């Protein structure tokens, strides 16, 4: 059993005017954010700085991963007007970089790829100076769906490997370790100039050697950006935390990642896939 949550994981709550304004905007446009749905620990910091990760395709996921707090079940509808509302919100917020993710929609033939593509295009029209990152599901290995997203030319393609190979089937629902690697490789085949990104959460029972092996696997797929963060159990029904890593250990993992050739590594206890995303993209772009 893991020890009590350490001091470095305590979060400062910041519910100032920017936070309140952004929350009103999201509710007014009936938009979802992964910040809220996944109970991200950085929501107060990010929203106070007027940044957010939009979650499209509804708020009901067809998978039930053992680490994720997003609601699971069978979605009942597809909102075809959602891309335009996301673009409007991006424009009104004056974002320089926007992250668009989604629930898994295994009930749809293309997994929602067309809505991703239309969201990218809608943001391009309304906010042409805003860079766009998409954090996509694996589309159950439907590479035509992946091509639909890549043909819309996001500025960065993000797909999370989440954990080490040994624990993948236990931690993730339906997603497969090798399928994730193949998706990241295919993304580069479709759009060689679009940087790719992936994320590992640690603290679910992996070893340092397994984390390093996962880095090596991602680099073999030519992944450009890596984020590493501490897993935090969202509810008692989710996977328990096996270990809280010290910030010094995260610093060492960052060194290992950079040694292996990642253009940018964001590694820390509260790091999440979209945390400081704008800085990550800028850093990687300079190295490309």
UniProtKB/TrEMBL annotation:
Residues 47-263 form the Radical SAM core domain. GO terms for biological process: protein lipoylation. Gene3D superfamilies: Aldolase class I (3.20.20.70). InterPro entries: Aldolase_TIM, Elp3/MiaA/NifB-like_rSAM, LIAS_N, Lipoyl_synth, rSAM, rSAM_sf. SUPFAM superfamilies: Radical SAM enzymes (SSF102114). GO terms for cellular component: cytoplasm. It catalyses: [[Fe-S] cluster scaffold protein carrying a second [4Fe-4S](2+) cluster] + N(6)-octanoyl-L-lysyl-[protein] + 2 oxidized [2Fe-2S]-[ferredoxin] + 2 S-adenosyl-L-methionine + 4 H(+) = [[Fe-S] cluster scaffold protein] + N(6)-[(R)-dihydrolipoyl]-L-lysyl-[protein] + 4 Fe(3+) + 2 hydrogen sulfide + 2 5'-deoxyadenosine + 2 L-methionine + 2 reduced [2Fe-2S]-[ferredoxin]. One of its GO terms (molecular function) is metal ion binding. Binds 2 [4Fe-4S] clusters per subunit. One cluster is coordinated with 3 cysteines and an exchangeable S-adenosyl-L-methionine. Keywords: 4Fe-4S, Cytoplasm, Iron, Iron-sulfur, Metal-binding, S-adenosyl-L-methionine, Transferase. It is found in: Cytoplasm. The keyword Glycosyltransferase does not apply. Pfam families: LIAS_N, Radical_SAM. Pathway: Protein modification; protein lipoylation via endogenous pathway; protein N(6)-(lipoyl)lysine from octanoyl-[acyl-carrier-protein]. NCBIfam families: lipA, PRK05481.1, PRK12928.1. This is Lipoyl synthase. It comes from Aneurinibacillus danicus.
